[in-house]
Amino acid sequence: MSSFGYSKQTLQGDLPEDPNNAPAQPQQQQAGFFVRTAIHIIGAIAGGLAMFLGLFSCFSLSGLCILSGLYLMLLGFGLIVLEAPICCQFWEITRKLGEWSNSMSALLKAGLYLLLPIASFFMCRGISQIFACLLVMGVGALYGIIFIGKKGDAVKIARQQHVTGTDGSQAVTMSEVKPQADVGRYP
What we know:
Layout: H1 33-57, H2 63-83, H3 93-103, H4 106-115, H5 117-123, H6 127-148, H7 153-164
Helix pairs in contact: 1-2, 1-6, 2-5, 2-6, 4-6, 5-6
Family: Belongs to the calcium channel flower family.
Organism: Holothuria leucospilota (Black long sea cucumber)
Keywords: Membrane, Transmembrane, Transmembrane helix
């Protein structure tokens, strides 16, 4: 029984499902525990440094640099809340934000951490803004690497299948193909 009182019905009626005949579900490639923990630690450190550098850039006479510093402090705080919610345990919402952050895909986190610091860079181009933006973008690049994961092996597998062919016969590789003469081209 589900939580709404409806029973689960299958295509075969009331027969129990055979786990051997179940369709294969694609497995999501997850990063290892230590890799995720290292990225969370790096993200928390980058968030703290972004907050410090944002505070440092607030000591300016330019209004846009002060606004950029405030934005960097907010961005650093958000990075800490999303990557290390234990640092802000005294707020109830940080637990929910941490769970939501852990359920996000690596591609979404990479895009978020790569695009958000760009606004601060265009407001004020001081050394502290550049360094803080690069720290946050570095965390986004790490999430991008996690998203790519072992997908780079697909190229190697495709090359092997191309050389042997899908039916086991020997296929022609690109190095064996001779270039044709340019017919119809004007010099």
